[in-house]
Amino acid sequence: MEYTVGQVAAVAGVTVRTLHHYDAIGLLSPSGRSAAGHRRYGDGDLDRLQRILFHRALGFALDEIAALLDDPEADPRAHLRRQHALLTDRIETLRRMADAVAAAMEAAQMGINLTPEEKFEVFEGYDPDQYADEAQQRWGHTDAYRESQRRTASYTKADWQRLKDEFDALHARVAELLARGVPADAPEAMDAAEEHRRFIDSAHYPCDARMHTCLADMYVADARFTATYEAIRPGLAQYLHDAIHANARRTE
Fold first, then answer.
1. Global pTM?
2. Nearest alpha-carbon partner for 196 in 185, 180, 207, 186
């Protein structure tokens, strides 16, 4: 079987630009070309891409991954066993932290008005005030921050739990689209991105397409946001980012 760069991007949950970059640096060069010179990937290329993404999810730099994969004495099965062990060690912790970190950062940005007891109950032992000062410094001067403070001042613990559950369910649906290989610019993915925008607009502060793309950029630029989405499903931060941008272009 041979696959186009678009097909590989869709099934792996990465962007075409990422695959082009991997080719340019020699990390993943396609094994074939079409008569017109277009990239064609084989099953062996997909196996290598899988190992690359495993290592990326574990925090390895691209040059480190290249050195590991191109080691002539390396046993591919040993690589997989090592990756499995590392992932197993981390996965349970990441699962426990994913919701707590997402909620904590949203809480810090939006200015939650909860008692200390409620904060720890809602966020499962994670203290949202860890990011409160940063949120104030980064967004305190904005109309969006002030509006979020006004809206959320009256939110109860039950309100925050309901919003958290709704947002978790939305992220799970986006992750499922990624798992099915739905392109980020497909109508289904853009509709999910629009639902994401409307959720923020309704629950927190006015969020138009421009504001939404700024948030999307933060999801991939800020390692803490990225880690939260990657814990839900590897590649989700970039996928959501791309879907949000595609949705914004659709509404232009």
1. 0.48
2. 207
The one-letter amino acid code at 42 reads: G
* In contact, 232 and 175? CB cutoff 8 Å: yes
Rounded Cα distance, 155 and 161, in Å: 10
Side chain identity at residue 220, one-letter code = V
Q: How far apart are alpha carbons 140 and 119 in whole angstroms?
A: 21
Task: Calculate ∠ Cα 161-167-173, nearest 5°.
Answer: 140
Distance CA(49)–CA(73), nearest Å, equals 19
Would you say 229 and 240 are in contact if contact means Cβ atoms under 8 Å apart?
Answer: yes
> For the packed helices 209-221 and 236-250, what is the interaxial angle rounded to 10 degrees?
160
Q: What are phi and psi of 41, to 5 degrees?
A: -105, 140
Average pLDDT of span 76-104: 63
Using alpha carbons, select from 241, 229, 227, 221 the residue that is nearest to residue 59: 227
Q: Please name the amino acid found at residue 222.
A: D
Q: C-alpha angle 57/175/100, rounded to 5°? A: 70
- Token pair recorded at residue 142: 């904005």
State pLDDT tens for residues 135-160.
Answer: 445 544 556 556 666 666 667 777 77
Provide φ and ψ at 40, rounded to 5°: -135, 125
pLDDT digits (tens, 9 = 90+) for 175-198: 999 999 999 999 999 999 999 999
How far apart CA 218 and CA 244 sit, in angstroms, is 12
> Token match 């290329």: residue?
45
Question: How much is the CA Rg of the chain, to the nearest whole Å?
Answer: 20
**Cα 59-61-65 angle, rounded to 5 deg:** 100
